Amino acid sequence: MIPLEKRQFRLLNVACLNARVDTALFLLDTRPARAEELMNQLLNRGASARDALTSLLDEKQILDTVLSLAISRASYGLVKRLIAEGADVHVKTMHQIELFSRQSGEEIVQDVTPLHLGSLHANFHGVQALFDHRGDKATVAEMVLASDSAGRLPLHWAARGAHGPEYHYMLPQNEIVTHTVNTVKLLLSIDPDTINARDHKGYNALWYAVSSFREGFDQHLNIPKTLLEYGAEANMRDQDGLNVLHLLAFTQNVEAVRALLRCGASMSVKNLKGDTPLHQAAKGKVFGYRYELATERNGIPLDAKITAQDLMMKILEEAGDGLDLMNEKNADGKTPRQLQQETRIKWHQEEQKRLSHMQDR
């Protein structure tokens, strides 16, 4: 039989990955407990805080360490202990993730530090411990400027947030925003100039906050508000010419759009297709998070779609400062007014199908 260590198996790694590891506790002849208590017990019994999981293809490439796994939820005290027992604060790991991809599909991201991962999970107590016990390899300023292989700083990871196919917040739902805001403020207190730092794709932290939270933006509004208060550029454009208003124009996030408009987001910015945010709103995609039961059972009702679109378009049109944006043509020669009419025709057809489907049940 191949020994566990040669099969890249580390009991302490398993402890970090799971909130409860009954099997490990059984082996230790003790009671079930949460991960942190288990980790302390394992450390007490001689487990190594230096453990690392390396790639089978390249042993020099580190995939995970005890610290990189624990930082998602570890307390200040546990992070301090791991570092004291040899965990490398500045270790760089490789991850295959979908977090930052606009389309479905994974990307391989290298040079990910524990600070990136702690920021992602909004573990600001753990992040503070990383700063306080960093050793002499790097200053705090150098830590917040350390980018992954795609040019993303810890601030980008914090703004993106741990809600995706690979990562999940280790926090109660009602604490996510507070912890994220505190993490963002902590990072920006060290280097305020990172507020508009762009990664290799040209995205800043505000872009990630808006794009990742947009389907539930109302609940997370304090995150982009905090970034805007620190001077985030609201008119940054991506490779397709989209600004943050383009991202939100076809949602129901009216308060978010108002906040962005107050901070100078421009209604006149066009993407590569010649669309203004008003064109986007006229195309009529409406997320269903406010109509969860209706969406799950029968789809979003027509009147709800129309109400949401009318309100968003009204706010955007009023923000045009007298410009005739409703009649401005995009690259296809279509105006928001024409697109809205096309959308309403499509919606009426969808409503007939929705009602027919309900009757057939």
UniProtKB/TrEMBL annotation:
Record keywords: S-adenosyl-L-methionine included?
no
The record's listing under InterPro entries reads: Ankyrin_rpt, Ankyrin_rpt-contain_sf
Instruction: Map the ANK repeats onto residue numbers.
Output: 240-272
Concerning Pfam families, the annotation shows:
Ank_2
| Entry keyword set | ANK repeat, Repeat
For the region Disordered, what residue ranges are annotated? 326-361
Q: Where is the composition biased (Basic and acidic residues)?
A: 326-335, 343-361
Q: Does the keyword Repeat apply?
A: yes
PANTHER family from the UniProt entry: ANKYRIN REPEAT PROTEIN, GH09064P
State what protein this is by name.
Ankyrin repeat-containing domain protein
